[in-house]
Amino acid sequence: MPRYLACYVMFGLVIVLSGIAFLVWQHAVSMLVGLLDTEDTAKPFIYAVSMLAVIFALFAVVMIAEPYLRTGARRGQLARRAARIAGSLVLAIALGLLVQEVIYHLPA
Are 11 and 74 in contact (CB under 8 A)? Predict the structure, then answer.
């Protein structure tokens, strides 16, 4: 039972990291769309499609994470599997922040 409690604590961490990744990439996509040299009428569509891709990717991570972590808890591999998922999300967050930082420092 305690290993399943740890499993769902790790799953909660995945959900929190996914939420942070969403917020970071929402701003990064907004900045990227702002850089585009297209008509102003096309930008909302590009933003919406880009955000749908981000949302679907993060939703897939969360949906896949629960059975992946539960199976890892049963096999004694919970720490390794949780680190793999959390590390990937932290990397996605860092990449989104890097994109924002690079765009912010571009010459006007």
Answer: no
- List the chain domain ranges: 2-104
DSSP 29-60: HHHHHHH--S-TTTHHHHHHHHHHHHHHHHHH
Structure tokens at 35: 């850089």
Number of Cα atoms under 13 Å in the Cβ half of residue 3: 11
- Measured between alpha carbons, how far is 61 from 99 in angstroms, rounded to an integer? 21
Residues 37/49, Cβ–Cβ less than 8 Å: no
pLDDT digit of tens for each residue in the chain (108 aa)?
688 899 999 999 999 999 999 999 999 999 999 998 888 888 999 999 999 999 999 999 999 999 999 999 999 999 999 999 999 999 999 999 999 999 999 986
Nearest to 33 by CA among 23, 24, 46, 48: 46
Q: Rounded to an integer, what distance in angstroms lies between the CA atom of residue 101 and that of residue 77? A: 36
